[in-house]
Amino acid sequence: MFKIILGTIALILLALQFGCAVKAGPIYHKGGREYGRIKGIWGSTFWNYYERGLSYAEGEFWTEAINDFQQAIRLKNQDQRRVRTYGLHILDDYFPHREMGIVYYAMGDYQKAIQELSLSLKYYPSAKAKYYLNRSRQAYLQQRGQDKACPQILFTSHRDQQLVSGFEALIEGRASDDCFVEKIMINGIPYLCELAQPEIPFSATVDLEPGVNEIKVVAKDLLGKETVASLHLIADRQAPLLYVEDLRIMPAAGNDGRYPGGEIQIEGQIKDVAGVRSFQIDQKEVPLHGAEGRFLFRSPLIESRSFLPFTAEDRLGNRVEGQIGIETDQQKEYTFLPRLVRVASLRLAGVGSFSQQGESRDLQPPTIRIDSPKGDLVVDWESVFVCGEVQDTGGIRDILINHESVMAGEGKRIYFNHILKLPQGKTTITIQAIDRAGNEKTKSITIERKINPVRQIGARMSLAIIPFTQYGKNEPGGGNLVTDFLIKAFADQERFFVVDRQRIDQVLRRLKKDDPENPEISPREFGTMVCAETILAGHVYESKGFVEIAARLIDTETSVILDCQDVYGPEDSESLKTLLEGLALKFKHSFPLVEGMIVEKEGQSIFVNLGKEKNIKEFTKFIVFRDGRPLIDPLTKKVLEYRPDILGEAKIVKVFEQTSQADLRIKDQQKDTVRVKDRVITK
């Protein structure tokens, strides 16, 4: 009986071996390599056909490759990443439609290539499918001669020669073509558009310098026809400049009888690049005459008043408020008094407002008074408003702030204002005044910008980048090159706190030493060992001068894949560097650094005014904080830094369109301290 059973098993194994040998298909040899052989035993599964199809395609055995991809599709239709095969085994990539489309492209059957590649993108968008769909469409258009016109570019955010305020502008528009737009560049920087489309909307934030700024956009179609369009924006970050040329105190006997108790006459100019929309002295609108904005203001003399308030606003909304000092000595029929124009507040369009009270004291010409900022400060501002007054009885020729002129003419008393961008660290601001005789006066202040701790790189989501799995040629050092470029690209983006590679390598070596056969551990354990909240893992496929890099971001606490991104292109080192910079940029866009507010609190749950429209994702975290008071040195009274009250963290559990729900990760005794209107920032 035992012999019969053994014989039966032997026959079954022989039959299986014979059957598998038949179904496994032919093995080809070309250039010293085998094509058509798979790893393991043939089982007629979808992954067997897919693996063999890839092998045939690599050897350019097109018919055999198409047959295998078609059979794989019959067994499992949809293209996808991370597909389960059997048990706990995972196939990194399964893209039969995409790979069959690439084979059709190589065979010159561009219509079928377009059909299969489009279907692949419908199931799962991949950079490789987009690349070959572009190439297939390009070849099809060349074959048919259909593409006739150059692309067109339309700006939708601004008109040419438009006046704007601020340090930057969001440029929006669209590029269109009679067939397909493939590439867009904005001021020489490529705009991310992997898949060519008949129309592609674009948006980019560009830095602005004072005066005229040219924004140049280039659009190319699939056949290389190019269109260049320019948009000119005039940046005005100044509120109107007030020039007081003459100030007369007219006693009752000296005026025309209009004001029996005497009058004040102020003559001068008010200038602004954008044009003055409103100018008031003592809450009365002052008529302006001519293109130079000249004015003559008359007001009754009131002895108890030493200042007249003024406000001026340009057409962009840049606004200044202040006070003009006056003399009430009625014995003088005409007096130009180099006294005070005091700043009450300044508001620049799109930037905000700043208030400061000036000192009331007489100054000798040429004199500089800085009303804002007052003295050396430590701040957490991205920019600073510099404003004050310069006086000189002989006339002022120029006012410079950090060697940049802020004047548009000459006068005896000028109120100036200017906005400066603040880098991190100390910035010296120098105001220089030059009178008509060439005499100079200089004043300087120092501003130190300290970034709020919740916005510093150390407070952001920690990321460990582990070596990617290599497939294909596996050139010596190729994996290290990818890891090096990727770490630098993520560090340069400044969105994540990137864990030091040396620490990761030490942990990996220790794991391999402890268990050479199975050095892998769970994401949670690995994250604990390297102090990382997320892990970036992935794989690299190299084939025929091209490389596909697919990455996934994993939450170490839950092992959930938070996001997947990929890139595809030439594998030379310069192109590889550009590809990996693009990969890092994709993750940065997928996990934006945004701030919001708690709008509701229920027990341990908070609801925040940030949702899907801000790209908020489940399983990521918020830092919960409250703006703290400045830390002041008790001896010098100087502000040392602005220290926020960091209340803790919250894990996002549900995301809605405009809101999200998060569970507080705070000690029980501190949970009651969190309240509505407290602020959050994505970690």
Compile the SSE list and pairings.
Elements: H1 2-23, E1 28-30, E2 33-35, H2 46-58, H3 62-75, E3 80-84, E4 90-94, H4 96-107, H5 110-123, H6 127-144, E5 152-155, E6 162-164, E7 168-186, E8 189-191, E9 197-207, E10 211-221, E11 226-235, E12 241-250, E13 263-271, E14 276-281, E15 284-285, E16 294-300, E17 307-314, E18 319-325, E19 341-348, E20 352-355, E21 367-372, E22 377-379, E23 383-401, E24 404-405, E25 411-421, E26 425-435, E27 440-449, E28 462-465, E29 469-471, H7 478-493, E30 497-498, H8 501-514, H9 523-530, E31 534-543, E32 546-555, E33 561-570, H10 573-590, E34 595-602, E35 605-608, E36 621-626, E37 630-632, E38 639-642, E39 645-655, E40 660-665, E41 679-682
Parallel strand pairs: 6-11, 22-27, 28-30, 28-31, 29-31
Antiparallel strand pairs: 1-2, 3-4, 5-7, 7-8, 7-9, 7-10, 10-11, 12-13, 12-25, 13-16, 14-15, 14-17, 17-18, 18-19, 19-20, 21-23, 23-24, 23-25, 23-26, 26-27, 31-32, 32-33, 34-35, 34-41, 35-40, 36-39, 36-41, 37-38, 39-40
